[in-house]
Amino acid sequence: MSTLYLLHKPYRMLSQFTDSQGRATLAEVIRAPGVYAAGRLDFDSEGLLLLSDDGSLIHRIAHPKHKQPKTYWVQLEGHITDEAIRALKAGITLKDGPTLPAKARRIAPPAIAEREPPIDPKRHPLTSWLELTISEGRNRQVRRMTAHVGFPTLRLVRAAIGPWQLGDLAPGEWRKETLHAPRPDNARQPRSMSKNGVSKNGVSKSASPKNPASKKARAAKAAPKRSTSTRGPKK
């Protein structure tokens, strides 16, 4: 049994618990002993960050060989064209080599909290939103990809990692799930029969965790099974 924390990392916060330069860290929004981030999210990016106190679980989530797909909502400078979307889908060549084909589609502005500080409409009067799913983890890859096709990224929000989704978490808010990790031979383990519970700002309500990804996805094979979920208040 392992514990996984799903955190909505705010804008301009490091994906770590300490910083010698006085920048905002995860210690300001989550206090759980012995937990570490499974991967990272840039200081100037927002959205879903997974944390756990289980090293093997962190490895299964973060290691590139498991290819957990990551979905981002991207606010772009200008109105992205169909040609640019086709290029992202097919794969483009960056300085560190070609990217794998991605899933990309134009979307309406997602229902998420306004960034603090917000995008300045006077400096950026024309913007559009893109949903982009990639299975790689290169440094600042999404920003480089959109700039390559002519539409620089203004705001970047990670919406999902494999089967785990940001959902309705507000910036600085987190949700805790109890998981049953698969055995080395991938044999199934029984689910806990405990009831799911969610609390937000001290108010309890029922909730069910989202289903795992399709069996066709390699990521789903590495993803542990979930049993319970609790939510922590925004700090």
Automatic annotation (TrEMBL):
It comes from the Bacteria. The keyword Disulfide bond does not apply. Residues 4-148 form the Pseudouridine synthase RsuA/RluA-like domain. It is an enzyme of class 5 (isomerase). Residues 180-235 are annotated as: Disordered. Residues 189-203 have a biased composition (Polar residues). The keyword Isomerase applies. Its EC number is 5.4.99.-. Pfam families: PseudoU_synth_2 (PF00849). Keywords: Isomerase. Residues 220-235 have a biased composition (Low complexity). Belongs to the pseudouridine synthase RsuA family. This is Pseudouridine synthase. The lineage of its organism: Bacteria, Pseudomonadati, Pseudomonadota, Gammaproteobacteria, Oceanospirillales.
